[in-house]
Amino acid sequence: MSLVARHLEASGIPTVIIGSAKDIVEHCGVPRFVFSDFPLGNPCGHPWDKDMQVATVRLALQVLENASGPRTTVRSPFEWKANDPEWRERYNRVRAEDREKLLAIGEARRKERKA
Amino acid sequence: MQDKSSGLPVPYMERTRNYYRALGYTKDYVWANHTDVPFTRMAKPVSKMKVALITTAGPGDRSHRDERNRRHVWSGQVANPPATFDTDMAWDKESTHTDDRETFLPIDAAQRLVSDGALGALAPSFHTAPTDYSQQKTTEQDAPEILRRLQDEQVDAAILTAL
Q1: Choosing among B95, B99, B137, B146, which should be mutated to test the A contact, i.e. which has the most A CBs within 10 A?
Q2: What is the Cα–Cα distance from A53 to A71, expressed in whole angstroms?
Q3: Number of domains into which chain A is organized
Q4: CB spacing of A45 vs B103 below 8 angstroms
Q5: Is A27 within the bounds of a domain?
Q6: From A43, A113, B82, B147, which residue has the greatest number of CB atoms within 10 Å?
């Protein structure tokens, strides 16, 4: 997505990305970025929270209008759900007890690709 | 004990690298990395602009995928978006869900901002950008195709939302 933003921007169309993978977006280097510090999947706000979604898009419009140069990152003020403080540890975690299972999944994928 | 709510952003590149190594892959993925970043100044205020939405999700009928399951640029109408979306890609399926389209394609939210005057207009079409592992396909085919579609509707700016 960052590469698309860069292409549009270089062609004269200002862009803003709303996303949650801060390290990946900033590693690529983009003009304007609203960082939602949430699990991957819901960059524009918690599911079914209309007010948060409108506020997030409003913030993106403000970043569009006010950014003075490239690599502008603005963190959204919203946090992920208070009843799920463990979420940061979850995505693509590799636990010792899962290693054997993960290796088998990888083997199966490689076989399928060859077929 | 480590404080798990410490608030540091998740290191996705490191996490993904370790995960794929655990799956037995020997070659690490190399994420796009650029020193120079393009920047286009805004020609007018957002309240006078026509803005397009671009997301990574495709239509639920998977018509953006070819017979080899490769995803392609696809466009839908904001006035009549698909009832369901294909969100079969990498996101945190244990922590959340994508049942609410507005969390990754905020059509209603953008329309509310048009109604209250913060945004000039929403472009009639929104677009699906396939985020393939092939950076070459993204830069040489998909991004130019999306640009053409935005130019067709004389779009002034774009909001891109990545699952």
Answers
A1: B95
A2: 23
A3: 1
A4: yes
A5: yes
A6: A43
Taking the CA atoms of residue B17, residue B22, residue B24 and residue B27 in that order, the dihedral angle to the nearest 10 degrees is 10
Domain layout of chain B by residue ranges: 35-161
Nearest in space to B106 (alpha carbons), one of A66, A24, A47:
A47
- Sequence length of chain A is 115
Backbone angles phi, psi at B106, to 5 degrees: -85, 65
Distance between CA B124 and CA B77 in Å, rounded? 6
Chain A, nearest residue to B38 by Cα = A10
How many Å lie between the alpha carbon of A95 and the closest alpha carbon of chain B?
10
**Partner residue facing A28 (CB), from B31, B98, B99:** B31
Q: Model-level pTM?
A: 0.94
Beta strand B50-55 pairing with B157-161? parallel
Chain B's closest residue to A79, CA to CA, is: B7
Interval A77-113: pLDDT, tens: 999 999 999 999 999 999 999 999 999 999 999 998 8
